[in-house]
């Protein structure tokens, strides 16, 4: 194939997707189209989200718009503590500066395939992880200190399978920190 043309299965990363430092939690497996095509303003990748995983930790971004398009499978979109089911063909986007915290989770029994994208990383973009105060400290100047303060719904932002394998906790923050520490104890064998 020509240099800028690729099939997602040919560029799919290995399943070693613990994305955050010090975390044992696995996230999606990426095929990074945007980097391969050397796009400088748009970040886009295909993500295979296995059962019991989520795309990231719940977070909000100050300066970057983001979106997810469900190619196949069924996922749950978590927005400020409320969950909305999504199926193939569904789309969700998050506008920058709103402080809407979000994550996509796979609570089904099958892989989901997503197109994830947004603006390419901006040098001064800042983040907020509502259930990961340690991460907010770790990222230093990248922490969005004056983020909007949403009223969270009842959901803790964890996929069902991940939550089931963790010690019982009383708060969403404690549950998410446990996920960071332990990850998904029941990793499916290949």
In short:
This protein has about 190 residues and is α+β, with helices and mostly antiparallel strands. It is about 15% helix and about 25% strand.
Q: Could you walk me through the main structural features you see in this protein, from its secondary elements to its overall organization?
A:
The protein has 190 residues and is of the alpha+beta class. The chain has a single domain (8-182), classed as Jelly Rolls (Sandwich), CATH 2.60.120. It contains five helices and ten strands; from the N terminus they run αβαβββββββββααα. It has helices spanning 8-11, 33-36, 133-138, 160-164, 172-182; strands at residues 29-31, 42-49, 60-61, 66-72, 74-79, 82-87, 91-94, 102-105, 112-119, 127-128. The strands form three sheets. Strands 1-2-9-4-7 form a five-stranded antiparallel sheet. A three-stranded antiparallel sheet has the order 6-5-8, with no helix packed on it. Strand 5 and strand 6 form a beta hairpin. The chain is globular and about 55 Å long. The two termini are 29 Å apart. 30% of the residues are buried. Residues 186-190 have low confidence and may be disordered.
Tertiary shape:
globular
Radius of gyration: 16 Å
Total of DSSP H or I helical runs spanning 4+ residues? 5
First-to-last CA distance? 29 Å
The second-level CATH architecture is Sandwich
What structural category characterises the helix and strand content? alpha+beta
CATH superfamily: Jelly Rolls
Largest sheet: 5 strands, antiparallel
User: What is the element string, with H for helices and E for strands?
Assistant: HEHEEEEEEEEEHHH
CATH class: Mainly Beta
The count of β-strands is 10
Mean pLDDT: 89
Going across the major beta sheet, what is the strand order?
A: 1-2-9-4-7
The fraction of residues in strands falls at 25-35%
**Helical fraction:** 10-25%
Domains, number: 1
Uncertain segments: 186-190
CATH topology: Jelly Rolls
């Amino acid at each position: 194939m020509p240099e800028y043309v690729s099939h997602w299965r040919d560029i799919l990363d290995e399943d070693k997707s613990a994305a955050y430092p010090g975390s044992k939690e696995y996230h999606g497996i990426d095929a990074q189209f945007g980097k391969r095509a050397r796009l400088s303003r748009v970040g886009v990748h295909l993500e295979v989200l296995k059962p019991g995983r989520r795309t990231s930790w719940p977070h909000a971004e100050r300066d970057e718009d983001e979106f997810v398009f469900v190619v196949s499978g069924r996922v749950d979109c978590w927005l400020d503590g409320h969950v909305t089911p999504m199926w193939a063909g569904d789309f969700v986007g998050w506008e920058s500066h709103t402080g809407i915290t979000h994550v996509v989770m796979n609570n089904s029994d099958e892989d989901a395939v997503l197109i994830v994208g947004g603006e390419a990383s901006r040098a001064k973009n800042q983040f907020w992880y509502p259930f990961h105060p340690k991460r907010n400290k770790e990222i230093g100047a990248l922490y969005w200190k004056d983020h909007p303060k949403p009223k969270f719904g009842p959901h803790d932002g964890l996929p069902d399978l991940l939550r089931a394998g963790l010690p019982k906790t009383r708060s969403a923050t404690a549950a998410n920190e446990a996920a960071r520490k332990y990850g998904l104890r029941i990793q499916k064998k290949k």
